[in-house]
Design a protein that fits this description.
This protein has about 80 residues and is mostly beta strands. It contains no helices and six strands. It is globular, with a radius of gyration of 13 Å.
Length: about 80
């Protein structure tokens, strides 16, 4: 199972979109950056499994500041699940 979440790359950065595998023993796999970090402040990731096995993820880019009102909806098509090492 994969989880998708928004989290900053470092303390001074805006939120980026990440994912991780949850193993059957409840341990987490490595973090993977899903979209380039130069997207704005990412929020509300919502993954959707397609019939062909790919994952369509929708998310909101909140611009440089969440309260500016500059919100854009994006999608990303992901062809495989997170690495589960």
């Amino acid at each position: 199972m994969d989880i998708y979440y928004s989290y900053p790359i470092d303390e001074e950065e805006e939120l980026s979109l990440w994912r991780r595998c949850i193993k059957s023993n409840a341990k987490l796999g490595d973090e993977e950056l899903v979209v380039e970090h130069d997207f704005g402040n990412i929020a509300k990731p919502s993954p959707h499994r397609l019939k062909n096995g790919q994952v369509l993820i929708t998310f909101v880019e909140q611009g440089k500041a969440a309260l500016e009102g500059d919100h854009n909806i994006h999608t990303a098509l992901i062809s495989s699940d997170a690495t589960c090492n």
